[in-house]
Amino acid sequence: MSALGDALLTLAHVVEPGDQRVGTLVDEIGAIEVVSRIHDGSIRNRDHDALKARLAAVNLDEIHARADAVGARIIARGDPEWPSQLDDLEVARPFVLWVIGSPNLRLAALKSVAIIGARASTPYGEHIAREWSSQLSAQGWMVASGGAYGIDAAAHRGVLSAGGVTTCVLATGVDVAYPRAHSELLARICDMGLLVSESPLGAQARRQRFLTRNRIIAALTRATVVVEAALRSGTTSTANAAFALNRPVLAVPGPVTSPMSAGCHHLIREQLATVASAWSDIPEILGALATVPAVAVQEQARQIDALDGVAARVFDAFPRARAIDQHSLLVQSGVGVKDLLGALSTLEMLGFIARIDDGWSRVRG
Amino acid sequence: MSALGDALLTLAHVVEPGDQRVGTLVDEIGAIEVVSRIHDGSIRNRDHDALKARLAAVNLDEIHARADAVGARIIARGDPEWPSQLDDLEVARPFVLWVIGSPNLRLAALKSVAIIGARASTPYGEHIAREWSSQLSAQGWMVASGGAYGIDAAAHRGVLSAGGVTTCVLATGVDVAYPRAHSELLARICDMGLLVSESPLGAQARRQRFLTRNRIIAALTRATVVVEAALRSGTTSTANAAFALNRPVLAVPGPVTSPMSAGCHHLIREQLATVASAWSDIPEILGALATVPAVAVQEQARQIDALDGVAARVFDAFPRARAIDQHSLLVQSGVGVKDLLGALSTLEMLGFIARIDDGWSRVRG
């Protein structure tokens, strides 16, 4: 990692997520200088003793070794896999992200939507979350959510059932299964999709971390869909963050007799959200917007650099004029199953390949 | 009836409801002159032969006798009981209305709301229509609807169960039970509330009459609430009429999986309607507006002229400082049961009296 990357990784262990005061200073004088000022005590900050104590405890070698041990990669601001949407958070953007999973986060986020909602969801809301996620996933959309009980879990499961890419943005470290009852779900997400967090490995659940995490879900994706929410709920914080970022917010209406739809109706009435009554409303509303990243993708597609090594190897293994099944791809490319699945997702999202019957085929263009 | 009243009543038999061409001419040269021009054939109109033939068949004595026979009164534009809201329809306003029922239509319409929706309603929509109508009625709101199957019927029934005043605006003559299966419901409405139509007695159901009728529901009331509606349904025509009249339109969201809520979601998404998620949203949205008629009512209240003879007699029968039950009122006022109920509704809506336990009491003020 570069000196800048090391400084950002250090700050991620020293500063609370979303701290705008330190974030502003980093933008002014740079991460390396901020770390140095924390070190020599010259930073003006009420918490400077705490910051200095935390800094003293940072051991970058250990941090990298621990990430390697759990199969996580660390992506710092400006790295090739950094999702540039997060820069819309400005001084509140994360310093680094820990990521587990094969797909390329930056590319996955180009055509992505957040599907979120209440933990105390109803069968109606869970049905919608599962169904819409599955449909959007089948159309090549990455679906992000927060891994919580209820709507979040239903959204992730809908994508998994469609064999697509789902991203779970955690409020804990990516190696912490939270809620514990979701360890199996999180394991499946990390097999097929991505686990993402700005909190260091081992970070436990804290109320404040859920609120700061919500801004990442909102910023990472092109639109946020609220499926069910009570009035004045945590879900509203993600919707508000998305609204503040000028991201479209959609809310799913439901029976007015259901308290779990009251938050959605409130968002609609206050014109903080538009009505979403079918999954297809989302690509429709994003229509004009969605073409922007598509163009960027096509440009990137011309540069082989846009593909990471594994994806390039897998793409090279494709025959020019006919379909190929997954087993043959494994043999031809020589990459592992998990890497293959990640590469296929990336290539599909970029429009290089398409599913055909039981296999895959290059897209002519 | 005056010569003007006779001319308007004649036009109601000769011209199709909502005919804006004739309506414009009436505003320009007056109803009496229009009748005279139809008579002498000097009116420029493609249909002038049909108009003349119909005019020849008009027998005012018979028309009045027939109205007396079915207990209907005829209210012409500008009559004391004419609901002035209808004048917002401008050249498309009715010439006259046939009305059956004790309450004063003009006063009832001052604090009124239309609750309408699909014939092919769901139990969810019927529950909402019944419950909200009942609650609004208990708060002194007159609820108008169209007497159709489904949501309309549920709205009327909700009011009846609360002992309030509901108005059914018919597309047929007020003496025609349509749909036939609703004869009992219509009989109950006309016992406790009002049947209203601009179509002559005996007029049968015609598709066009339902569309022209819808504009009366929209104009008569202060706001229109759409409880359930399919996409592109007749209900939408009432909502559009209300919107065109600058009346607030509210739509009740429902499950996105229900086709009967699709029309409501469409109205909300297109910002033709605001979200209604509780009955109390209606008085809230009408808040500022609702005080306008209230002030007018208070002014009228000071003039004994505002009360028709029966209401004045009933009010006089109230003791100054204590409550009185219905039986004592019957005895004291000497009016019939049906007249008494109508007068009580009027007096309650005007804020003269209030329900107390099993009886009634003057409102001090």
Please tell me about this protein's structure:
- The structure is a homodimer of 365-residue chains.
- Chain A is of the alpha/beta class and 365 residues long.
- The first copy, chain A, folds into 3 domains: 58 residues, no CATH class; 182 residues, 3-Layer(aba) Sandwich (Rossmann fold); 56 residues, Orthogonal Bundle (Arc Repressor Mutant, subunit A).
- Chain A is 50% helix and 12% strand.
- Chain A has 16 helices and 12 strands.
- In chain A, strands 1-2-6-5-4-3-7-8-9 form a 9-stranded mixed beta sheet, sandwiched between helices. In chain A, strands 10-12-11 form a 3-stranded antiparallel beta sheet.
- Chain A is globular and about 65 Å long.
- The two termini of chain A are 38 Å apart.
- Chains A and B meet through α7, α12 and β9 of A and α7, α12 and β9 of B.
Most extensive contact = A-B, 19 and 19 residues
- What is the SS-derived class of chain A? alpha/beta
Can you write the helix and strand succession of chain A as a string? HHHHHEEHEHEHEHEHEHEHEHHEHHEE
Q: Give the assembly state of these chains.
A: homodimer
* Parts with pLDDT < 50 across at least 5 consecutive residues of chain A: 290-304
Tell me the number of helical segments of chain A per DSSP (H or I, 4 or more residues long): 16
Rg result of chain A: 21 Å
Q: Major sheet of chain A: size, sense and barrel closure?
A: 9 strands, mixed
What gross morphology of chain A would you assign?
A: globular
Task: Summarize model confidence as the mean pLDDT of chain A.
Answer: 90
* Helix percentage range of chain A: 40-55%
Cα(first) to Cα(last) distance of chain A is: 38 Å
CATH architecture call of the largest domain in chain A:
3-Layer(aba) Sandwich
User: If strands are numbered along the chain, what order do they take across the biggest sheet of chain A?
Assistant: 1-2-6-5-4-3-7-8-9
